[in-house]
Amino acid sequence: MKPEFENIPLVKTGKRFEIEVNGHYAFIDYREMGHQIALVHTEAEPELAGTGAAAAVVEKTLHYIEDNQKKLLPFCPYVFAYIKKHPEWKRIVDERFEGYNQL
Keywords of this protein's UniProt record, alphabetized (predicted)? Predict the structure, then answer.
């Protein structure tokens, strides 16, 4: 993640993980089921396009999942692609996830 995002806190609301950058948001919609967290959709407001904010919110969310001993279900195509690009994160993906072998 780019250094400018390192000190921005990750906020977990009832339905999303988000970061705020200069009054704009990058977020991931999620569902939590017991020991699993399904990441469904990642989005950054247009003002954050190309800044790395979406990647930052993904990385912060993956750390949250790992730190809380949860298993990831990466349904969001952006998160799935992020894990393919950073295969070290496959360690937190639930082995029963349908696309596990494609990561």
Answer: Transferase
In this structure, what CATH number is given to the domain that contains residue 74? 3.40.630.30
C-alpha dihedral, 89 to 92 to 98 to 103, nearest 10°: 20
Helix (H) or strand (E) holding 52: none
Number of domains the chain is built from: 1
Residues in the chain: 103
pTM of whole model > 0.70?
A: yes
pLDDT tens digits in sequence order for the chain, 103 residues long:
899 999 999 999 989 999 999 999 999 999 999 999 999 999 999 999 999 999 999 999 999 999 999 999 999 999 999 999 999 999 999 999 999 999 9
Domain span at residue 34 reads 3-102
Q: Which residue has the tokens 């200069």?
A: 22
